[in-house]
Automatic annotation (TrEMBL), chain A:
Database matches in SMART domains: AAA (SM00382)
Protein task: Part of the ABC transporter FtsEX involved in cellular division. Important for assembly or stability of the septal ring.
Pfam families: ABC_tran
Protein name as annotated: Cell division ATP-binding protein FtsE
Gene Ontology annotations for the cellular component aspect, listed alphabetically: plasma membrane
Species for this entry: Teichococcus deserti
Statement: the UniProt record of this protein carries the keyword Cell cycle: yes
Homology family: Belongs to the ABC transporter superfamily.
Keyword Nucleotide-binding among record annotations: yes
Domain of life: Bacteria
Automatic annotation (TrEMBL), chain B:
TM spans (from-to): 23-42, 162-182, 215-237, 257-275
Naturally occurring in which organism (per UniProt): Teichococcus deserti
Protein name (Swiss-Prot/TrEMBL): Cell division protein FtsX
GO BP annotations, alphabetical order: cell division
Source taxon at top rank: Bacteria
Length: 224, 287
């Protein structure tokens, strides 16, 4: 479950002072096990909302509740364990360039302390699921944009997270791959994962109807 | 292939490349060599000081020839009147016999010189004028200034030891600064990777620990090399100093082996702790 209550987010401006609010007065609840499209024009604040949801950013005001935990700066020590229950597909992939596809996907499991022998089948299966069998040992620079995106997706779902956020995950995929990815995400959603996907592809939204949260200028203009 | 895979698995921040394999250990090796020389200097000065201070208890002695033994009071009066002299006391003949017994046995009939002990107000004074003035008043009186030299050497040894310890503290301080700079450079070059690990749920302790282990290892390795280079250097120095410290000392046994052995673990610990602190301070900027 994700609950925003009067949340505002202000990025520091380059001169160090507080800049304008990128997000203002966000109040909404995404129920456990829901699937939500996050929509809005470029610059509307989609990435910022997702960064709050996966705790890469803390709100500058308001209350943020993620996976039944109230997120507070004074409880920073509790955040890493919470982050490990959240899968993230970053807009810019954020793969480690000197790690193979296998090691990139295995990273969250290793951070969680999983043993090498137990994580191997999971990672291999996940790479096969996103169609990257045979590419386990390739470095990110040896992969195409779409393949890198699929590595990022495999890394996000390999821990079977309770919450999955994806920031424009189909940006580098052709329409067939995009549909396959969405099938994967809806399958995870059916297994109980709360899923939030930011996109500006109306075609994709039309193919997979679901509730949507629409942002404009850092505010929610539609939810439902 | 499996080997490569597990090697990277243990190093997701790519620290083996980010933290140069040569610069940091090279600097730490140089500092370990300096530390080893300072430590050996301090230990050596301490040994010399101990040895010389035994002799220094004798202070300055004045001998009157046996035929002038009756002039003891005159000698005391002359000496006590001198501004350079802090105190002058006669050594009584019973104590003289006691001191001499190991060498001469019981020989009560032997004529013994009359002896007095002096303390000077200032060790740096030249004792020759005192001897001249005393000899003018009591012919044949001799002043034995060996004790002054011993006391001066002991004072020198003490300051050498002080300087050596100050050098040691300085080297440790520079080591902390060097490690902090190296850590900051490593963090800067792996900034993105750190943020990715952080976003995937790595704890501060996990990230700082990876840096600290790597840097601690590099520092310990560098110190090991520095200590190894120090061994022949110190053996040569100790060879030169051996006659001053009591003669027949084998250079290998005189080396501060324990101090040398402690250099790598201490350097490793300094590196580990400094890296922990620098990385944790940097991580404060992430939520
Ligand atoms: N790191 C940042 N520092 C300062 N401003 C930012 C930062 N990230 C985003 N913004 C600002 O926040 C607003 C929303 O951006 P973003 O969340 O990336 O929107 P979207 O993902 O919908 O394109 C934009 O005005 C953008 O300039
Ligand atoms: Mg965006």
């Amino acid at each position: 479950m994700v609950r925003f209550t009067a949340v505002g987010l202000r990025y520091p401006s380059p001169d160090g002072r507080a800049g304008p609010e990128a997000l203002s007065d966000l109040t909404f609840t995404l129920p456990e096990g829901s699937f939500t499209w996050l929509l809005g024009a470029s610059g509307a604040g989609k990435s910022s909302v997702l960064r709050l949801m996966h705790l890469a950013q803390l709100p500058t005001r308001g209350d943020l509740e993620v996976l039944d935990t109230l997120v507070r700066p004074e409880r920073r020590a509790a955040l890493p364990a919470l982050r490990r229950r959240i899968g993230v597909v970053f807009q810019d992939f954020r793969l480690l360039p000197y790690l193979s596809a296998f090691d990139n996907v295995a990273l969250p499991l290793r951070l969680a302390g999983r043993s090498e022998s137990s994580l191997r089948p999971d990672v291999t299966e996940m790479l096969r699921w996103v169609g990257l069998q045979g590419k386990e040992l390739s470095l990110p620079q040896q992969l195409s944009g779409g393949e890198q995106q699929r590595v990022a997706i495999a890394r996000a779902v390999v821990t079977r997270p309770a919450l999955l956020v994806a920031d424009e995950p189909t940006g580098n995929l052709d329409s067939l791959q995009a549909r396959r990815l969405l099938a994967l995400l809806t399958q995870m959603n059916r297994l109980g994962t709360t899923v939030v996907v930011a996109t500006h592809s109306e075609e994709l939204v039309a193919q997979f109807p679901a509730p949507s949260l629409v942002l404009d200028g850092g505010r929610v203009v539609h939810h439902g | 292939m499996a080997e490569r895979r597990s090697r990277y698995a243990r190093d997701p921040l790519g620290l083996k490349r980010a933290l140069s394999d040569r610069l940091l250990p090279g600097l730490v090796a140089a500092m370990a060599l300096l530390a080893a020389i300072a430590l050996a200097g301090s230990r050596g000065a301490e040994a010399l000081k101990d040895r010389w201070q035994h002799g220094a208890a004798a202070a300055v002695t004045v001998q009157l020839p046996p035929e002038q033994a009756g002039q003891m009071d005159r000698a005391l009066e002359v000496l006590r009147a001198m501004p350079e002299v802090a105190s002058a006391v006669p050594v009584d003949s019973d104590r003289m016999r006691q001191l001499l017994r190991p060498w001469l046995g019981e020989v009560p009939s032997l004529p013994l010189p009359a002896v007095l002990e002096l303390r000077l107000k200032n060790l740096a004074l030249d004792p020759a004028p005192i001897a001249e003035r005393l000899a003018g008043a009591v012919p044949g009186a001799e002043l034995e200034s060996h004790g002054i030299w011993v006391a001066r050497l002991a004072a020198l040894a003490r300051s050498v030891q002080g300087v050596a310890l100050a050098v040691l503290a300085l080297v440790a301080g520079v080591a902390v600064a060097v490690v902090a700079v190296a850590t900051r450079a490593g963090v800067a070059s792996r900034r993105q990777a750190i943020e990715i690990l952080h976003d995937l749920g790595a704890t501060q302790g996990d990230i700082a620990g990876r840096f600290a282990r790597r840097i601690g290892l590099l520092a310990a390795g560098g110190a090991l090399a520095g200590a190894a280079i120090a061994v022949p250097t110190l053996a040569a120095l100790s060879n030169l100093a051996a006659p001053l410290a009591g003669g027949e000392v084998q250079p290998w046994t005189a080396l501060p082996w324990l101090d040398l052995a402690l250099l790598p673990p201490v350097a490793g610990l300094i590196g580990w702790a400094t890296a922990q602190l620098s990385v944790r301070r940097w991580l404060k900027r992430l939520p």
